[in-house]
Every structure is written in C-alpha cells, then in structure tokens.
Amino acid sequence: MSLPRYDHFINGARVPPASGDYFDTENPYTGEVWAHIARGNAADVDAAVAAAKAAFEGPWGGLTATRRGQLLRRLADLVIEHAPRLAEIEQRDNGKLSSEVVAQVRYMGEYFHYYAGLADKVESKVIPTDKPGVFTFTRYEAKGVVAIITPWNSPLTLTSWKLAPALAAGCVAVVKPSEFTSASMLEFAALFEQAGFPPGVVNVVTGFGAEVGEPLVAHPDVAHIGFTGGELAGKRIYEAAARNLKTVTLELGGKSPNIIFDDADLDQAVKGVVSGIFAASGQSCQAGSRVLVQESIHDELIRRLVEFVGTAKLGDPTRPDTQIGPIATRPQFEKVLDYIRIAREEGARCVLGGKARPDLGAGQFIEPTIFTGVDNRMRIAQEEVFGPVLCIIPFKDEADAIRIGNDILYGLAGAVWTRSLHRALYVTERLKAGTVWVNNYRATSFTTPFGGYKRSGIGRESGSDAIHEYLDTKSVWIST
Ligand code: NAD
C-alpha cells in the first residue's frame, strides 16, 4: 500500500518540492513510517514568500479589519469541527496522548475566535503634542510577511499562537513546521481555503532547519520571525534576524521551579507536580522540572509522589486509559536517557523510574523518573531535559526558595504552593519568570500573555498585546 505524500502548500495549492525529494515521517509509538513529506529548499521558500507578499499587497491587504475577523471566525469554527481529524494526524506524528491532543486542537479553535474578535479592535491614538498647529495620531500597520517556525511538541497549538494574532493584525505568513511533525499543519492549511482566505495568505513549506528555516529567516521580504523551539536554533535565528534588523518573537526553553511550602494543600500540590512534569511525557517548555520543597515536608512529598506516579500507565497513546506516551523523536529519546545517566553520575538519587522501556510499542518509552538529592548547580537541575524527569531540591525558607528558583538561566514559568496569600505574592513578585502560577500549574489562555524572562525568550504570545508583535506603529502629523 502506498503511503500518503504531503506537498507544500503555496498560494492556495499543493505544490511538489522544487528538489523533487520527500522525507519519511514516523509514528513514535509504532515506529512505522506513515507518510512522506516534501523536502523543501530555498527555491520553495522564495515561491512561498512571493505568494505571501502578493497576497499582502493584493487581495488580503485590501480587506477591512472586520472582514479579516469574519474569515478568522469561520476558520475557528472549521478548526473546532475538524479537531478530531487534525488531532489524529498530529498524534500520529508526535505520540502525545489522544486525549491531550484533541483538547489542544479544540482549544486552538478558541484561539482563532479570540483573535477574530480583536482584528477590528486595534484602535489608533490621537496624541496631544507640544507643537502648535498640528493634529497627530498613530496608525498600527501590519508588518507584512511573517515567518513562523515551530517545534514538534505541540505543533498546531504553537503555530496558532503566532498565526492567529499575525492574521488578525493583517500580516501574511509562511509556516515551517518541525520536520518531525509536518503533516498536521499541511492538513490544517486546507481549512484556510475552505474558510475563504485569499490564496497566499498562509503558506506552508516543509523540510529541515538548515534547508528551509535558514533561507526563510534570511529572506529579504520576511519582516518578522515567530519561533518556538530550542535555545540553539533560537540563537541562530536571532543572529540571522539581527543581520537584517528583523523583529523576532522567541519562545524558548525552561527549567521552571515548582515551589511547595509546608503550609500547602499537599494533595493538590502533588497533582500539580505530576501534571507539571509528566503531562506530554515532560516534553513541554513550561514543564515544572525542578520541584523545590520545604525541608519539613520533603520526605512526605517524595513518598506521595512515588506512590502516585509509580502506578502511571505507559503505553499506546491512543488508548483512553494511557497516562504516559512515548518520547516524540529518537534524538529526544537519546537525549533524555543521557540526562538520566548524567544525573546519576552527578550523584543524584533515582527514587522512581530511570529506565527506557524497550518492551513498549517501538521502544521509545522512558519511565517517569524522579531524582532526589539534587543540588541546584547540577546539570540535571540547570539544563532543559524535555522529558519525564523530575528533580527535587529541598529549601529552608522563602528567601532560600527564591534564591534557588532564580538560580537558573531560564525564566519561562514557575509556581508557588501555599495557603498564605502574603507568601504567595511575596514569592511571585520575586521570581524572575514570565508566568507564575499560585496553587495550580500549567494554566494558559488566549487571553493571557505567555513568554519568557532571561534565556526563555523575547516577546509575548497570547493576550490582546500579542497582536502588536505583528504591527508597526506609524505616527502621522497633519498641519491644521
Ligand atoms: P529546534 O529548536 O531544533 O527546532 C525547532 C524548529 O526550528 C524546527 O522547525 C526546526 O527545523 C527549525 N530550525 C532549526 N534550526 C533552525 C535554523 N538555524 N534556522 C531556522 N529554523 C531552524 O527544536 P526541536 O528539534 O524541535 O527540539 C530540540 C530542543 O528544543 C528540544 O530538545 C527542547 O529542549 C527544545 N524545545 C523547546 C520547545 C519549547 O516549547 N520551548 C519546544 C520544542 C522543543
């Protein structure tokens, strides 16, 4: 039986790669190749950027903001309607639990609804000035062609975080999905046609970072880059953008502290710790991968965590009773195992898991793993593992928790578990992180900005301000 073959999506049409080459995409649970994906290069990027530019200067640029909102609303409805199918494709590529992916894709529809509503609510300002005889106001104008480059962990969601505000702002886009998870974006692209978007507004070029990502970032007609992924690629993109003074939104890694005080509701905190690190098998930028626990409850927390997580069911991610699925890619699987070895060499004590499970699926499973006896200066505490590996670090008091929490190059998120409002606010104010949760973990919304301090990124996604990542400000002076 021949496998499905996915071409690029350029100017509203399926376009074979200029190279004529395709690469395989695999199901990480079964290990089977299930589709072939167009292997793009600079020529495909040129075609996609030209199509986007033509749409921007032509039919899309001529639409009112209200009309853009209407099209986005129609798209949002289509996303919700097609969520099961999109989720199935995405799940096949990255091995996440079906339940997680379906919920994520449905919610992505809500994202588009939110930005559909914002499209015609970006209001200019009339500005009183110190100069006589003038009337001055601002205009917010779409930047133009935006490059959207995304990773494999939540491909459609992370694309929507960029695409929805970009389109609401009036921009056009060329999307480069991860080479590990391209198919869902290509299926999603078909919905733009159905929703009635003019051709060229959204284009998708698939392939590898060096062959598609780099020429896309360097392209002179690309005005802004929206990127989520690893720090290494993020830095390369930032450097390349700097060469042409392009703007960027970078959403990079994290090593977020999940801080548990001795006055916390421990039942709730345990659930928060577990979902914080083990949801999506830990392959999430906001994972609560460092648990900081007050010394007096250290042993009790570990006892409860080991008991709770020890029964987690690993296996087929499409089954509703599975709690932990496979690692999404082979390189990531190797990387997580490397970190488990490093943690042991550093002297951390593995109290749960710590092994691969070759007996499950195609063997790309790693047990949920908990390390105690971790010093915050160890590599296992400092570096992003992006897998189901938790380190537990004791602390004495608030000052100690804040010091350890901030003793990290990252600053994406963090959480505080306590019944004291004063303590919650005191610690929240002092944590250097873009998101702080109090007595919960991992909540995000289209209404609320998300992004990183320090090495976790630049700019913010979600929320009404995110639309300004895709807008330039023009001041207009009129003599009266
Ligand atoms: P990556 O950063 O290597 O790749 C992300 C995207 O960038 C992919 O589409 C890739 O093809 C592209 N890319 C790579 N190099 C590029 C370049 N020089 N120019 C333009 N585009 C380029 O991430 P990954 O391979 O998906 O995962 C690697 C690591 O990134 C993971 O181990 C994890 O630590 C981290 N990660 C972070 C997040 C997050 O949400 N912050 C998500 C996924 C992965």
Automatic annotation (TrEMBL):
The active site is at E251. InterPro entries: Ald_DH/histidinol_DH (IPR016161), Ald_DH_C (IPR016163), Ald_DH_CS_GLU (IPR029510), Ald_DH_N (IPR016162), Aldehyde_DH_dom (IPR015590). Residues 19-476 form the Aldehyde dehydrogenase domain. Keywords: Oxidoreductase. CDD domains: ALDH_DhaS. Transmembrane segments: none annotated. GO terms for molecular function: aldehyde dehydrogenase (NAD+) activity. Belongs to the aldehyde dehydrogenase family. This is Aldehyde dehydrogenase. It comes from Castellaniella defragrans (strain DSM 12143 / CCUG 39792 / 65Phen) (Alcaligenes defragrans). The lineage of its organism: Bacteria, Pseudomonadati, Pseudomonadota, Betaproteobacteria, Burkholderiales.
